[in-house]
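Review form for a predicted model. The reviewer records the input and the model, then writes brief findings.
Reviewer: anonymous (R2)
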Amino acid sequence: MDIIDPLRPKTVPLSAETILWFEFLLDPELLTSHLNKCSPNPPPIELIEKFLTIFPDNPGESAVTPQGSDKETPKSIEEILGRKQIALKILTLKVASHLKWNLDVIETLNLQKQIQLLDDLCTVTSGTLVSLPLTSDEVKIGPQGSRGAFEFALLVYHRWTLRVYKIFKEALLKNKANFGLNPAGTTTDPISLRDEMFATAMDPIPQDSINYLLNICQNPEAIAVLTYDSLIPLNATSEYTSQNFRFIKFISKCEIKTQIHFDLCKFFLYVNSNALARQHAIDCRDNLRVLKLEYESRGEKPADFLLCHVPEEELEGCLLACGVSDVKHGLLQRMNEEIVHQRYSNILEILERDNIELEIPFVHRKILELDIEEALKTGEANVTKDIEISIIALNTIRCLVDEENCFQTTDFMQKYNGSAENLSVLLQATAKFLASECPQRSRDRMAQYYRSLLVKVDIVKEVRSLNLLTEDELAFQAGSRFVFPQISTQADWRVPDLSHHRLEVGQLKRQLINSNASDVRKLCRKLGSMKEYDEGRRRPRELWEINASWSIPIPLQSVLKSLQRGFLKDFAYIALGKARELTNRKDFTGAVAMLTVLKTETQRSEIANTAAVTKMGKLIAWEILLVQICQCLNDWPKKHPDSASIGAKCKQCILSLQNGDAAIPRTEILEYSIAMLLNLSDWASLILPDKRSPILEVSSALAGAALDIEKGKPSKICREAWDLVLPMFLTSGGKRSVSRDSPTLAANNFSAFFGKLREPFIVSIILSLLAKVVNIIKDDTNVEISCDYMFLWPATISNSNSYNLRAVSEALSHLLDQNLKFYPQNISWLKLRADLDYLNGDNEAAIKGYVNALISGTEYCTLHLQKPLIDDAVVRRMIKCSTNLGCHMQATVLCQFLDDVDYGLAFKCISEKSASFTDAIDTYYSCIWDVTILEFIINLHAKKNEHTRKLQVISYMSQLELNANNNEEIKREAANNRKMKFLRALAKQYMLQEM
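Model under review:
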């Protein structure tokens, strides 16, 4: 008696709905009901695989009767293969017809099953035994076959041949690559011998299939499709197959051409025949449009296609690969195309649309604005002033409506200073924007902008037409503006036509004050003979005394005093004084013109040989150089067109000092010349053996340090510059030592000279020197500041208590602020500025500086935060600043930015109570991605019975991207998105001005 083990697993009984494979064979009607289910199990492709697996394609012992044999009665396919096997083949084909002969689905079978299925299709439709691959010989149709059905089988076969060509080629290459390399016992997936013979028969390219498909496209006859009802399965009483080919359906030529062109396009793309692929892609697209119209006319949809299976997304990809896609791309891509081709014909339309959709990152629009400005300066043909103004106006609107934007919205008014013509462009762009489908929040932000604008500009009438502000608001803005009387705004006063000597002289003096270079000489001639007498000083009144702002340097005054009284002396005083006045007003062109006229006057033949005049001519040439250098520094970083010639003149200026010329330049001109050579990176010209100026001595040391870095000697300690700069900050009895006899510069002269420097490399070297001095004097690692090139300087200072820390930090701060005006996005300088504020205890300025650096380094929150832009030292200082400002939740979020999250610090910050309205505790929950911190917050709210806030945190923690089972890429992307969101929030709080 057998003993039954109770622990032995028992067989699971089959479900009542489960159908075994042989039941389809016994009752073919079951197949129809099974396939008509919404989600048949097993699915159709598994049924095909099962039917093909049960009875493999093994012909019987009876040989195939050769075509053309003398035998009178050829055997039927049932007699050759057997009735059961034919019955299964027909069931397989019925399932394939239910799939509408979709080769995309059929290709999920392995290669042997695909070949077997197509072999069965050709055999059943021809009524004779057919073996693939087909040869060029024509297959004779048996009495059980159909010519139309077999033509359809050939169509499916040749389409499949093109598709499977790639699989065969890659499989053969794989087999060759792995030949003899696989150790025994390893499993590989090589193609079978039959498959390899099949692939060899198609090599190199299945040209027969290509020709066949092209002939079908050109043949006007309709194509028949083998349908589900045209395949009649065998039953117990039928002896032979009797397929009802009357149920085949004829499809339009357009449908078959659409499918064939798509298959040919993909094939030619694979074999790199791009020209043929492009043509077939276009034909497929055109035929697909016609085919949709045909089905729509009959009330049918693309899902009702009988044979065509062309995914529109894949067709669009082929069109893109061929370069003929006509799908409208995104706004960013369209804008980039306009920029690349420099057409700019549709750029305004793109920007107007983007003001509604907010698709283009604003940093790209800002770059476009700057490119247009540069193109306008260089005189490109496709860029006009109107385009520039319109782009800036549209960018201003985008600034206003985009809440995620970190740019300021005052650029338009700053650039155009309320010009009526340019302001009308902004108003027109605003009207067009408001007429579109803009949300109410955008309208509110626009209204707030125009409220502030009405305070500065009288545009009440224009703003009223926008329907943004109420009449009460407009009336208030109009009434709050003070109207000046006309007499106070009159620009010119007319002197009555009276023949009075003093009025005439006064009129000429007034003209002399306001005249340009060409008129000064004439007026000086007239006034030379009409001088007034000074009763107080008992001497004639000099012409240059009529304007107190006309002052000239002392070295020039000493030269002019040596001249005889007369026209040249008066003209020289006035021209030099007016040139200096114009230079102070930044009218450099007028100043150079004034000095050029004076220099031309000194070159007259009757006075040119005089020693004093000759010396004055040389000094005037140095004054012209000074004005040109001032213009270069004022326009920086824009490059001056004559910078090369200016640099050569600066070298001559220094050489004149070295050579001891009679007309040496003034100390101010010498300082500017040395600074200009440093700005032009011409450091070799400053390294001189004989340094007759303290400024030249320090500049030569800094130039040597720059050359050492360029030559790849970064480890060399630059003692010379260090020893020259360091004594400037010595203290003596509580006061700084500023002895004129000192061989080095005084601290105040130091700041004045280095304030003229603009070149980032040399400025960074000076900043690193000062930062190193600050760190050594302060001697506190918690507030240590850092910047580039600090390795150049020594690590210690003897008797560091003798140096004035405040003087060093002031010099560093002044130099840093001066150069940040020209390079506001220099990341290293921004972080140094923030470090300096952190050292001085200015928490708000420090965190603003750090946020500014992070915003600039991430291209205004379009790139992810990475090292070395941000590190643990910067994060911890931001946390410290936030806690000092009472923003504890901000500090909590920042704790996540650390490489290893400081949970102790984060939990402490969460537990702190803040009275500061800037903390906005609940708002920052969406910026937390660390699940541990979120769980702590949930627990804290639960203890305080704050149910609503607890549910809010739970909703954030339950987001899919914060799932602990996600891969690292998803977690990293979730963290990066929340970092950017938090960074934008900090930028709005600390950087943006109130509108």
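Findings: Residues 107 and 114 are 7 Å apart (CA to CA).
Further findings: Strands lie at 223-225, 249-251, 533-534, 539-540, 731-732, 735-736.
Recommendation: see findings above.
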